[in-house]
Amino acid sequence: MIEILYFAWVRERIGLPKERLETSAATVADLVEELKAREERYAAAFADLTALRVAVDQELTEFDAPLDGVREVAFFPPMTGG
Amino acid sequence: MAVRVQHEPFDFGAEANAFAAGRSDAGAVVTFTGIVRDLARGDLDRMEIEHYPGMTERALGGIEAEARARWDLRDCLIIHRFGTMVPGDMIMMVATASPHRADAFQAAEFLMDYLKSRAPFWKKEYTRDGALWVDSKDADEAALGRWAKG
Description:
The complex is a heterodimer. Chain A is of the alpha+beta class. Helices cover 29% and strands 26% of the residues of chain A.
């Protein structure tokens, strides 16, 4: 089971802050494809990956990152702190 | 060394005084405070800042550790708020203490540059016309380039 978290407009577009998913996806990119195939709201949220960032177990990473042993994946737009 | 992520306001003067008080190990203290700025049209009703609990503390702690590895710092403080704020409210502050002025200034700038685009905060602005997520700026990302190690 992987916990998937969404923040900012990704959360709004998908309509929930987090969910748990049983997946056999090998990488973040595979997981994105799996989510996009579920429903239109996911397809809309993940339409342009250049507008998104991903963190795996709370560390920023790339979309080709492996999911083996991962507990938590988060998707969000570029950060605007400060 | 401290990183605080909090909803409640902070007292900038009290924080800066406590940070600088009794310091004989560092001749230089630099502070920076970020304040909610109104929009050019003057119609910002409020700003909401969302964050990623857990990752936020980790990311800020990592940025602080990197600053301490690069500069001669005796102490370092990062406070960043989340939740609802209005124009004029203080969003965040950093403070650095070093024996040397240049280290204190550079470390403070480094902390600011990194927490702008590497700490998981997102700002949403509310006006009477609606709400908009604040876009990240190319300039903020470019600012990280000057800290790249050669």
